[in-house]
Specification:
The chain is an alpha/beta fold and 634 residues long. It has 18 helices and 30 strands. The structure holds 5'-O-(acetylsulfamoyl)adenosine.
């Protein structure tokens, strides 16, 4: 039986089966893969601890299912098509056979440099095929990869290296992004000054930027693969062995390492990729995410390649050399499924329709959205002008922690509704709860979104700190996974995601903890205290608004703001720079010392009417002072 849902009644049937007989349901899908040893039971779970296992005692290697399994069936099919930052640079195409060889070769290179099963490897690389090769090579030899988005600063990189005690770092001399070549090797050098665990750094030559190569530590990629065999045995992995760690921001200061394991992640990313996008053999699938984010892991690399798909990888940015680049690429490669973020849609929408018109987008069959709520206006624009009104638009809700798409239409099979993620995929049991955790049944309800039953690709722990995982996701509501998002179910039973209900802001689809940004701002010697909130931003979805108490001596407001932005860029990365900074005399605090963010959010969104109950504030006058100087925010 095919794993691909074909009809609406098929969806309903599969959904019911997945709820009534989850083990039979997932067991059947998992049978599509090559297991070195069959599992004993499909799952075991306990959401209190939490302790979740899928395909218990099964032995498997995810790369055998991506590479070896496809070698004799679709070995000549394109696995990866790569478009460079510069439109004139030649396309790179790797067939499944070529990918097999390159992954094996690099696996051997890593082994030769001391990396083995269970070791952690940081990948801090541009969007080039070698980034995917690096991920797969780790998976092949059982090393745990942790991709760090190459826009993060040396400090952020060092924090991640230290948190997971990485043995190796994979990077490049520099990264091309738009008109810039960013010298990333220098960032790695800087980070390593405060790391002691890294034994080798392998450097891909990409930009030709001058780099310092420390003997015994740094090694060129081309030297590392020289003479290495093009085959490499796939390590026997337990289904519950760690596949990767991906750091993500939460409501407290330090990013946490979300842990995904091999078996469940493999089954779920494959199944959701195939179904949500209704991928058909030969289609060209393009997800515009960066491999530094979970979307890049699940829907550029793992899901598509497990399904034998052709996945397009783009090194550059949507606006370089002109803001027509996405449309030009769709035309150039006759892309069939296009998956991007609302922030990109809104940014490109601003350039008008003329720039789209020269391109033939008729190859598109499905368009998708991910990362943040898509507003109705952007939905309609995307649907009409990119999908030309005849491509289903799948609004896919999921998280780093969920590993794969959870709530989404199935393209062309289940109905869509603007701004609604719509219905849960088979196997997913979302519920909406009130503040006390009571399930709000039926339609026309609004509350917090939880998931009450495990799914194969859910996070298993947070690296090195299981208690933090329990606290963050499994303690707010007993016996449930709490997503941190608010949601409503409308009169038709469709789910609309309302955004974060915790202190996490979503800037252009990138999650950032307000506490993390505050900590960075507070590093500036002139800053006494700060509070960060999100506010509505036309393009980014949310912008970052920082209220800062400073010692102004020897500074003007303008240069202090510049310095604060630079501090944040240095500590976290440019993506975390506040859009607006307001210097304030104090912050609205309750008697117990908690900042009343509700008030700060209202001021930041220019909603100065009713401030609500401020009677519990230590110093209510401070609110007036903040309102009066709101126009100085810049
Ligand atoms: C895949 C990804 C997760 C957070 C999540 C939401 C928000 C993501 C949607 C969405 C509304 C969507 N992982 N989010 N997708 N909100 N509709 N379709 O983005 O870990 O980086 O972020 O993103 O708030 O909790 S993530």
């Amino acid at each position: 039986m095919s794993n691909k849902i074909q009809t609406l009644s098929g969806y309903i049937h599969e959904y019911q089966k997945s709820v009534l007989q989850p083990e039979e349901f997932w067991g059947r899908i998992a049978e599509s893969f090559h297991w070195k040893k069959h599992w004993d039971s499909v799952m075991e779970w306990d959401f209190e601890k939490p302790d979740v296992k899928w395909f218990v005692n099964g032995k498997v290697n995810i790369t055998e299912n991506i590479l070896d399994r496809h070698l004799f069936t679709i070995g000549d099919r394109k696995a990866i098509i790569w478009e460079a930052n510069e439109p004139g640079e030649a396309t790179v195409e790797l067939t499944y056979r070529e990918l097999y060889e390159k992954v094996c070769q690099f696996s051997n290179a890593m082994k030769a440099n001391g990396v083995g099963k269970g070791d952690r490897v940081i990948i801090y690389m541009p969007m080039v095929p070698e980034a995917a090769i690096a991920m797969l090579a780790c998976a092949r030899i059982g090393a745990i990869h942790s991709v760090v988005f190459a826009g993060f600063s040396a400090t952020s990189l060092a924090d991640r290296i230290n948190d997971c005690q990485a043995k190796m770092v994979l990077t490049s001399d520099g990264n091309f992004r738009g008109s810039k070549a960013i010298p990333v090797k220098a960032v790695v050098d800087d980070a390593l000054k405060s790391c002691t665990t890294v034994e080798k750094v392998i450097v891909l030559k990409r930009t030709g930027t001058d780099v310092s190569m420390k003997s015994g530590l740094d090694m060129w990629w081309h030297d590392a693969i020289e003479g290495q065999a093009l085959s490499c045995p796939a390590e026997v992995m337990d289904s519950e062995d760690v596949l990767y760690i991906l750091y993500t921001s939460g409501s407290t200061g330090k990013p946490k390492g979300v842990v995904h394991t091999v078996g469940g992640y493999m089954v779920y990313t494959y199944y959701t990729f195939l179904n949500v996008f209704q991928y058909t053999a030969g289609d060209v699938f393009w997800c515009t995410a960066d491999v530094g984010w979970v979307t890049g892991h699940s829907y550029i690399v793992y899901g598509p390649l497990l399904a034998g798909a052709t996945t397009l990888m783009f090194e550059g940015v949507p606006t370089y050399p002109k803001p027509n680049r996405f449309w030009q690429i769709i035309d150039k490669y006759k892309v069939n499924q296009f998956y991007t973020a609302p922030t990109a849609i809104r940014a490109l929408q601003a350039y008008g329709l003329d720039i789209i018109e020269p391109f033939d987008l008729s190859s598109l069959k499905v368009i998708g959205s991910v990362g943040e709520p898509i507003n109705e206006e952007a939905w309609h624009w995307y649907h009409s002008h990119i999908g030309k009104g005849n491509c289903p638009l799948v609004d896919t809700w999921w998280q780093t922690e969920t590993g794969g798409i959870m709530i989404s239409a199935i393209a062309g099979i289940t109905p869509t509704k603007p701004a609604f993620a719509s219905l849960p995929l088979p196997g997913i049991q979302p519920i909406i709860v009130d503040a006390e955790g009571k399930e709000l049944k039926g339609n026309n309800v609004e509350g917090n979104l939880c998931i009450k039953f495990p799914w194969p690709s859910m996070l298993r722990t947070t690296w090195g700190d299981h208690e933090r995982c329990r606290q963050t996701y499994f303690s707010t509501y007993k016996g449930m996974y709490f997503t941190g998002d608010g949601a409503k179910r409308d009169h038709d039973g469709y789910i609309r995601i309302l955004g974060r209900v915790d202190d996490v802001i979503n800037v252009s689809g990138h999650r950032m903890g307000t506490a993390e940004i505050e900590n960075a701002i507070n590093e500036h010697p002139k800053v006494i205290e700060s509070a960060v909130v999100g506010y509505p931003h036309d393009v980014k979805g949310q912008g970052i608004y920082a209220y800062v108490i400073c010692d102004m001596e020897g500074r003007t407001e303008a240069n202090l703001k510049d310095e604060i932005r630079l501090t944040v860029a240095n500590i976290i990365g440019p993506i975390a720079k506040p859009d607006k900074i307001q210097i304030v005399p104090g912050l609205p605090k309750t008697r117990s010392g908690k900042i009343m963010r509700r008030i700060l959010r209202k001021v930041a969104s220019n909603d100065l009417g009713n401030m609500g109950d401020t009677s519990t504030l230590l110093d209510p006058d401070v609110v007036q002072a903040i309102i009066e100087t709101a126009d100085t925010a810049s």
